[in-house]
Amino acid sequence: MANKDDDLERELRDHLNLEAEEQREGGLPPAEARYAARRVLGNTTLIKEAIREMTGWATFDRLRQDLRYGARLLWRSPGFSIIAILTLALGIGANTAIFSVVNALLLRQLPYADSDHLFRLWPTNSQNRLDASPTTSYPAFLDWKQQSHSFEQVEMYATRSANLIGSDQPEHLRTLRVSPGFLALLGMAPILGRNFLEDEIQPGKERVALLTEGLWRRRFGADPGILGKTVKLTDESFTIIGVLPAAFQFPPNGPAELVWPQTPDPSRTHGFVNVVARLKPDASLLQAQAELDAITRSIETQSPKENQGQGVRLLSLQASYVQDVRPLLLVFLSAVGFVLLIACANVANLFLGRASERQKELVVRAALGAGRLRLARQLLTESALIGIAAGALGLLFAIGGVQGLLALVQKNFPAQAHQAVSLDATVLLFTVVISLVVGVASGLAPALAASRLDLNDTLKEASRGLTANRRRNRLRSAFVVAEIALALVLLIGAGLMLKSFVVLENIDPGLHPENILTMDLSIRGRKYATTPARSAIVSEMTHRIEQIPGVQSAAVVTDIPLTHNEDTMGITIEGRPSTGAKKHSINFNIVGPGYLRTLGIPLFQGRDFSERDTLASPTIVLINRAMARRFWPDQDPMGARLSTDGQHWLTIAGIVGDVRQMGLRSEPLPEVYISYLQDPYAWPFLSLLVRTTREPKKLASSIKSVVWSVDKDMPIVEVSTMEEIRAASIAQPRVSALLLTIFAALALVLASVGIYGVMSHSVSQRTHEMGLRMALGARAADVLTLVVGRGMILALSGVALGLGGAFALTRLLAGFLWTVQPADPLTFAAVSLLLAGVALLACYVPARRATKVDPIAALRYE
Known about the structure:
six-stranded mixed barrel
């Protein structure tokens, strides 16, 4: 490059010498001939640039020069550089952290072969909406598998918990029952042993199972001779035929550790099967959906009682696992996008202010031959350097932000979020791109202004002592208005979410969660197949636990309140006409004696369950007040009888308080409590509740010892406190409110810094004007009003614009709010006043400085 520059320099010098020689021959003295030759040849700098443009070899050289010059300027202005880099880094870091979660859950493909061709067949109700549960019956699965032609494969799976016994300490496993072709559907093969055979699903065949690599290593020490050995799950023995690789992560929301074939189930009313299908490459979604619709209509015609109004919808496998968190992630992504826009506007304002200070430099460079494009490119190079530096710092912020984000949302996002969220190549590429984009975008306004620079007007302005022109000031003011508008939208959204969370936090759950320990048990096996056997073990266990020092009471329940778990049943009420066997659908919960006392649920009428309520005594139930209000609004329900089949009757013996079984966000529903001692079914899953007089978890080991002294093969899982369960029931609103509040606070700081910067720069520009006003008799209060008034006009304009945007955008938050309207007037008013107050303070500081201008010094300076 240097040699080419030297050649160009020599060639221009030769042209200049030839022209000077001609001028001397024309009669001019040598000195004048030299000047005349220079006039004829023109601006050599422009000529050099034109030649470089024509040859193209100077592009990289100019880029290198621009980078070096820009880096030197930024190094000489550390205050400006640090503020600009830190401002953008905050926005980039927040966006990278949120994007890493969005990438893991919404964009990255699942770790299965051609996962974009995998779809879940999700049942729908009579309103064509997705059912709350994605499961269907085994016969329906067979119908879809055998009659559809748009899929390469249709397979099923069902999750189930099991007790792995036979060692010192039992273990509760998450297992998977699958059709024989399910692993092939996912593109998975055992790393040891073989896959399932088709005939192994038939009853009477030897029970076989596959271990996951994690369980194989943890429980069996990675024994290569594991094939052919047996493991015992409760009362069933399974022969190990293979080991699945660590890559087997299914289901994505909580991978299983042991897999075995599902035996056929002829019942169409027993919906426990999840169906996954692989679409053929040449088949369309519309074609496959139409085919499934035809099949479901045929099923309804054949079995109208079990399938009335039911349908099925195709949903991508990935979308099926994130549909609940997708809207929340998009809200977060929009929020951090607003923060980044505010940061860009802030840095653009900084660049505009700096460009006005560098105006004379730009004029001189233009006068020396620098073209408008070259000046704009230099400014964009400087802003791109700021963006790259901010991206590097933002990436460091994102590393900590991802960990903090996962800690906040660990119980609200699918399990694969914690395994898959990482700063991978996609996230790094996103950071690089967004860094360059925001860097260039931040410097675009001053670059455009430089490209429109008028040398004559600028030099005249400089000679009169004027500063930046009105157009640049209007642009800076527009940026401030946009910042405030965006900040207001974020603040109102955060305010609505925060208010909603406060309402939820103060809702009475209907129980007293303090000092209660919970743990899940699995009372399974042939020895517990009957109600008396099961009742005996539960009674012995609870009585022994109550003898532990520090324990007040203990009880069992099938569904812990506030956990979003509930069972339903259809009932008829004695003496009331019924149009069907199951007219009313109500919730029910199976509890043991002492349940009300342990949870602190009030008993308003009648009596509680006791040890005397057995299968040999009349079956009684308790109902909650919500059920009493619904079915007996003007009567006393005590003594009324219910039935699930029209033959066996349950007598209401008490009325208890309403408990928010499905979480604090759900209103109490009509609910029936059945005594565990009178439950005719051997309900295998129970939760143990223990009320203590001190920190509950300090007694966990003692309680576990008592449980295992009663049955050494009983696994214990999910040990937690009732207060933790209560907190988990509103964890998503808490996380949403917290994150939006953090983003809104960041936006508020950036917006206030933006308006402060504009007003401070305006005061410094108008120093002579302020001095002149005060010299002519203006009071300090007049100057203060002038400066603050201009700043508040910008602030209030932004507030007005933001209110319009908030009215439109906060409706997207309606699904996340509890008893709070998206257009809540109190929140809108409070946030507007807050933002206006912060803007007033940001205007007051530079305005106060303006009142201290010395008129004589200002005029002498000018």
